[in-house]
Specification:
This protein has 10 helices and 6 strands. By secondary structure, the protein is of the alpha/beta class. The radius of gyration is 17 Å and the shape is globular. It is an enzyme of class 3 (hydrolase).
C-alpha cells in the first residue's frame, strides 16, 4: 500500500513517513484492507489532506474515528458521501450553523465543499474496520495526526481550531493558543448536545469573524 498524499503535506510530513511506527502502521492498514472490509475506501484515506493543502488550511476540525457503516465515510471527519443519511452528530452541526448564522440545513452531508475552502476535517484515526468502532485505534494513527497538528501549530499562524468534546480537547494540547484561535465546546453527538454542551457555541460565526479580522475570506458553511 503506497502512501499517496497531496504534495505540500508530503513535504511537511516527509520525516514522519520514514519513522518505524508509520511503516508498521501502513503494514497493519494494508493487511486490514486486504483481509476485511474497511472504511473509508483506500483512495480516500488521505482525503482531508488532498482537499486541503497545508498552505490553504484556515480552520481545523478534529474528529475521532471514521464512520464504520457501509458507504458512510469519505475521509473527512463528520462528513458522509452524497446520498447517505446524515448521522446524528452531523445533523446537530447543521442545526447549530442554522441557528448561528442562518444557513439552512443542506440536503447532503458531504463536507468536501468545506474542505475545499480550507477546513481541514481531520479524524484522529484515519481508518476503521466495518461495523467495529475504534478497531484501528492505538495502531499509530494518533501519533501521525498529532504530528499533523504540531506542524500546523508551529508552521502556520492565525488558524482556527474547533475542538468538540473531551477527546478533541486532549488532542488539541499541542496547539499554541498564542498564535491560533482555539474554540472548545461539548461534542455535537446527541448525548452531549441534548445536555446543553453543544448548541449555542456559535463556533461558526466566531471562526468567520476571526478569519475576516485577519484578512482571510470567511468559510461558506
Amino acid at each position: 500500500m503506497q502512501v499517496t498524499i497531496e504534495e505540500s503535506w508530503k513535504r511537511q510530513l516527509a520525516d514522519e513517513f520514514e519513522k518505524p511506527y508509520f511503516k508498521e502502521l501502513i503494514r497493519f492498514v494494508k493487511n486490514e484492507y486486504d483481509k476485511n472490509t474497511c472504511f473509508p475506501p483506500g483512495r480516500q484515506i488521505f482525503s482531508a489532506f488532498d482537499h486541503t493543502p497545508f498552505h490553504k488550511v484556515k480552520v481545523v476540525i478534529l474528529g475521532q474515528d471514521p464512520y464504520h457503516g457501509l458507504g458512510q465515510a469519505n475521509g473527512l471527519c463528520f462528513s458522509v458521501a452524497d446520498g447517505i443519511a446524515k448521522p446524528p452528530s452531523l445533523i446537530n452541526i447543521f442545526e447549530e450553523i442554522k441557528s448561528d448564522i442562518g444557513i439552512p440545513v443542506p440536503p447532503s452531508g458531504n463536507l468536501e465543499r468545506w474542505a475545499d475552502q480550507g477546513v481541514l476535517l481531520l479524524n484522529a484515526t484515519l481508518t476503521v474496520r466495518a461495523n467495529q468502532a475504534g478497531s484501528h485505534q492505538k495502531k499509530g494513527w494518533e501519533q501521525f495526526t498529532d504530528a499533523v497538528i504540531t506542524k500546523l501549530s508551529e508552521n502556520r499562524e492565525g488558524l482556527v481550531f474547533l475542538l468538540w468534546g473531551g477527546y478533541a480537547k486532549k488532542k488539541g494540547a499541542k496547539i499554541n493558543s498564542d498564535k491560533h484561535l482555539v474554540l472548545t465546546s461539548g461534542h455535537p453527538s446527541p448525548l452531549s448536545a441534548n445536555r446543553g454542551y453543544w448548541f449555542g457555541n456559535k463556533h461558526f460565526s466566531k471562526a468567520n469573524a476571526f478569519l475576516e479580522e485577519n484578512g482571510m475570506e470567511k468559510i461558506e458553511w
